[in-house]
Write a structure and sequence with these properties.
Helix content: 40-55%
Distance between the termini: 21 Å
Order of helices and strands: HEHHEEHHHEHHEEHHHHEHEEEHEE
Number of helices: 14
Radius of gyration: 21 Å
Number of strands: 12
Largest sheet: 6 strands, mixed
Shape: globular
Oligomer: single chain
Strand order of the largest sheet: 7-8-9-10-11-12
């Protein structure tokens, strides 16, 4: 599960190809749990340093992507998403003239290194005669990002900001299509394998013909390495984690152990993984200097498994830089334990 060979968030993200990030804080943890010793501040520092970028490269969903991969990935994968969104654009009365006007408005508002929060971007659009009401605003921002005009910048407080892609990443690579297809397949199968062509097509959003072409153009990718360990290994996965969402067939994570729970039905919530199998869910709540992690197993856990899960919770606390209080929700009652953030 943890790719321990990587020392920085940027190295990990480049190896994986992309890390889903529609849940921003969960996406930070999805990177951090795979980089030994990484803290949440380290991942955010990589975003601020422009080594990784948050944008809409595939499946109409936000991902973290390595800075060197942003341009070619958007060019390769977004045309199909844009075409599929045509009906939704018509419903929202967003035509080419509206998108062109929005591009001009935001281009002027953001040039010379300026950043806008989503609210500020909406205000600029509204002031320029392009209404962001309803879902129009977010579709405008995603459309312009898919066209390589915008991307996310660093946060201001808790608010994400938008910047001009050409100013934020002026030197990002843009290789030809065949090379881009090969790189995408190599990254996916090296970091997500073993996987099928159907998994790869689902993850990337490519049509099957293009997915097969990508695999044919790629070098043989190494399968995921599995670290040896004594006793059970546990991980607290964030919602929409690559371990589940990157595959069309997710039965491998839930067979038998989850007593009939469908892995597809829990990909949007935080889940507890023990020895590769889904065993329950978890949630967090934050205080000023502490975090409470409440664990809800679907099946009984052994003493050794409990210890492994609590160790995983302590790792999450270290990532946040907070003391962790672990609570087990079992049979309508909760058992509370304190865990340090080290």
């Amino acid at each position: 599960m943890a790719a321990s060979r990587f020392d920085t968030p940027a190295e990990l993200v480049r190896w994986m190809g992309a890390v889903q990030a529609q849940d921003y804080l969960g996406g930070l943890w999805g990177i951090g749990l795979r980089v030994p010793g990484a803290a949440e501040a380290d991942v955010e520092a990589a975003l601020a340093a422009r080594t990784i970028v948050r944008t809409w490269p595939m499946r109409g969903t936000l991902h973290f992507v390595h800075a060197a991969d942003v341009r070619w990935m958007l060019r390769l994968l977004t045309p199909r998403m844009i075409a599929r969104a045509a009906g939704r654009y018509r419903e929202l009365e967003l035509d080419e003239a509206a998108f062109t006007r929005a591009r001009t408005i935001l281009g002027r508002a953001l040039r010379d290194g300026r950043r806008l929060t989503r609210g500020q971007a909406y205000a600029a659009l509204d002031g320029g005669g392009v209404s962001p009401q309803g879902q129009r605003g977010i579709h405008i921002l995603s459309h312009l990002s898919q066209h390589r005009v915008l991307c996310f910048g660093p946060r201001e407080g808790r608010q994400p900001t938008f910047v001009l892609l050409d100013e934020w990443l002026p030197d990002a690579a843009d290789p030809p299509r065949e090379q881009a297809l090969a790189m995408l397949a190599e990254r996916y199968f090296a970091s997500h394998g073993p996987a099928s062509v159907h998994d790869f097509a689902w993850w990337s959003g490519l049509v099957m013909r293009d997915a097969q072409e990508a695999i044919g153009a790629a070098r043989a990718g190494a399968a995921r390495s599995t670290a040896t360990h004594r006793g059970p290994a546990a991980v607290l996965l964030p919602p929409w984690d690559e371990y589940l969402v990157a595959y069309k067939d997710r039965a491998f994570a839930g067979e038998a152990v989850a007593i009939g729970r469908d892995p597809s039905g829990v990909i949007g919530v935080p889940v507890v993984l023990i020895d590769g199998f889904l065993r329950g869910t978890w949630k967090r709540s934050l205080a000023t200097s502490a975090a409470r992690v409440t664990l809800e197993p679907w099946t009984p856990v052994t003493r050794e498994e409990r210890g492994a899960v609590e160790k995983a919770a302590a790792r999450y606390g270290a990532f946040l830089g907070r003391q962790v209080e672990v609570r087990w929700a079992m049979s309508g009652r909760q058992v509370s334990r304190q865990r340090g953030a080290s």
